[in-house]
Amino acid sequence: MNHALIMPILLPLLVGCSLLLLHRQSALLKRLLSVTATWLLVPLALGLLWQADAGQLSVYRLGGWQPPFGIMLLLDRLSALMLLVTAILAGFSVLYAVRGDDERGPNFHALFQFQLAGINGAFLTGDLFNLFVFFEILLISSYALLLHGQGAKRVQSGIHYVVLNLLGSSLFLIGVSMLYGLTGTLNMADLAGRVGAADPADAPLLAAAGYLLLVVFALKGAILPLYFWLPRAYAAATAPVAALFAIMTKLGLYAIVRVFTLIFGSEAGVLSNMVLDWLWPLSMLTLVGGVLGALAARNLQILLSYLVVVSVGTLLAGIALGTEVGLSAALYYLVHSTLVSGGLFLLADLIARQRGDMAAELLSAPALKQPLLLGALFFAGAISIAGLPPFSGFIGKVMLLQAVPPGVDALLLWPVVLVGGLGMVIALSRAGSMVFWRPSEAVSVGRPADRVRVMATFGLLFGSVLLVAVAQPIQTYMQATAAQLFELQPYLQIIRGGEA
Predict the structure, then answer these.
(1) Which domain holds residue 406?
(2) Where are the alpha helices (DSSP H) in 98-238?
(3) Does 363 reside within a domain?
(4) Considering the domain boundaries, does residue 493 fall inside one?
(5) How do the pLDDT tens digits run along the chain, 500 residues long?
(6) How many domains does the chain have?
(7) Residue 170 resides in a domain
């Protein structure tokens, strides 16, 4: 059995527990342990990506139980990709945090590791109930990380975040219970076979369970009308926490892809592809709502939070097409938007530190200490996230627009994406002009940006350049990933005879 498959969960879990035991030790020791453990996930994820790229589905059976019994971890191209994106995002985020943000409250690094354990577990699990369990692990950690540093805004945003996610967890548990009561299993591969062979009389209840799961994942993924918790929560969080949270909405979209291509996919009989008709209008509305929110924002961090919502709508449009080409375009855009959004949250904090009392508010403030450096990073990040050439956002949007066949869908998507991109350019241009070109006459009180913080910010934003430089092999991998997700027989084979 390949024990490397469980290490993305086990490593942060053990390190998190160790950090709690070392609570009274020096900050240097805790930082060293956390940074080392986080960056070890990168070569580990690369190894798993190499393994998954062979096209085989790898199964890890905890306790040696043959699926569908016991706890099963599943590695395919999609889960390996998400592990690597998470590891890179977390690595640069924790580097940023060790320059002082981790001292704003207790046990930051332990919570950070538990969050990683929950995220990685959610990407690897092959069981719906364990998806719920890992969701709860990452959510409990995120509650504490959101409140890290205290403050009235963080507490208020944290309460909204906690209440809505507790509601989502309740609905998740109800949906999972319904599926178990109707099919007798929660293993995703086993569910895929049993839902397709279910009694037609049970179809309405199975559909109800599926729609409950869709609501839960829409809440996690910040899909309209369930995204209103996100802007205030992300803006109130400390910069490294907000950067790590850039992967959280993608987790909701990952769950939609996993559940509604495998369990309720093409082999689900009368319930096959049951949510595609819903995803298309939701994606358009989410995209429009995110752009309008960005145009109305008067705070740089809230503006960036709404751009996360825009990326969710764009990604959902690719998923809603229900084709390999659309899904591969969405996956490329997912990697781009996650890394660039994380980098922009770190950059917004660097800018706020040099603007005195105005911080991230889009009002006149003292001139920045390093306008050229921060301005260049902001310009590159803004162009990339808005989808302009020559960065990866442009390639991702072109791939998505080309994936839409001529017809009504194209008539809807092209104007929304292009006009939405124009709205993003306007919002970011206004923010950039206010921050960099309209300083007040007050004396600057900020300090030059810390070199490690700048390096962490640059590392994430540079991901956009790297995605362009190696666009062809990445696109090939995304196409293979989409093809694997739509080929359900290897997943069903897991139940029939072990690894496929």
Answers:
(1) 275-487
(2) 108-124, 128-147, 152-183, 188-196, 203-221, 230-236
(3) yes
(4) no
(5) 578 899 999 999 999 999 999 888 888 999 999 999 999 999 999 999 999 999 889 898 887 777 777 788 999 999 999 999 999 999 999 999 999 888 887 889 999 999 999 999 999 998 999 999 999 999 889 888 888 766 666 677 678 788 888 899 999 999 999 999 999 889 998 898 888 888 888 889 999 999 999 999 999 998 988 888 888 888 888 899 999 999 998 999 999 999 999 899 878 788 888 888 899 899 999 999 999 999 999 999 999 999 999 999 999 999 998 899 999 999 999 999 999 999 999 999 999 888 877 778 888 777 788 889 999 999 999 999 998 888 999 999 999 999 888 887 788 888 888 888 899 999 999 998 888 887 766 666 667 788 999 999 999 999 999 999 999 999 999 999 999 999 988 888 887 654 44
(6) 1
(7) no
Whole-number Å distance between alpha carbons of 340 and 463: 7
C-alpha closest to that of 120 among 159, 163, 164, 88: 88
How far apart (Å, rounded) are the C-alpha atoms in residues 203 and 400?
Answer: 33
Note whether 336 and 384 are within 8 A (CB): yes
Residue 499 falls in which region: left (phi positive, over 0), alpha (psi -120 to 50) or beta: beta
Whether 55 is covered by a domain: the verdict is no
Amino acid at 478: M
Q: 446: helix, coil or strand?
A: coil
Two structure tokens written together for 172:
């998740």
